[in-house]
Amino acid sequence: MKSETPPAAVSTGPAVPTELAPPPPLVPLLPPSRIRFSSSHRGARLARLLCGQQLDEWGIPRSTSASAVITAVVAELAANAATHGRTPGRDFEVRMSLAAELVRVEVIDTRPDRLPRAPGIAPRPPVFSTSGRGLLLVAAYADRWGWGVRDPYTKVVWAEVLHQA
């Protein structure tokens, strides 16, 4: 994201976001992965599957806990984009970047008017509900995460997960 990007909410773990800033600049080791998916449950599922494949190609095997954590974060953010960020006929995009010790995931959708509510601010879902915990999982798994409005038509929700090279 460029410096002229509007502020984004940031969290450094499971706490509520405490500052406004775009994600810090990242120097990727390899070219980032960018794929567009249909805003559907199938698109979210495909995003999760291709995330595991991309991590494997980058040398983070599917059998590692880092791969499992990053894949879970992608799954939750993609599911949120397909469910809450959906505009009929518009796709969402998943970008993944590998840096020396972290992987950044960015999910861009077409609903900048529907910003996520941080865990602790959002009401807790009913105990037996099967939805409503996606950002709780992202907050638990990611080392940093946040969101921001990129332009009048899109928003980005991003997360960074540390891994051992």
Automatic annotation (TrEMBL):
The keyword Acetylation does not apply. One of its GO terms (molecular function) is ATP binding. It comes from the Bacteria. It holds the Pfam family HATPase_c_2. It comes from Streptomyces paludis. PANTHER family: ANTI-SIGMA-F FACTOR RSBW, ANTI-SIGMA-F FACTOR RSBW-RELATED. Residues 1-25 are annotated as: Disordered. This is ATP-binding protein. Keywords: ATP-binding, Kinase, Nucleotide-binding, Serine/threonine-protein kinase, Transferase.
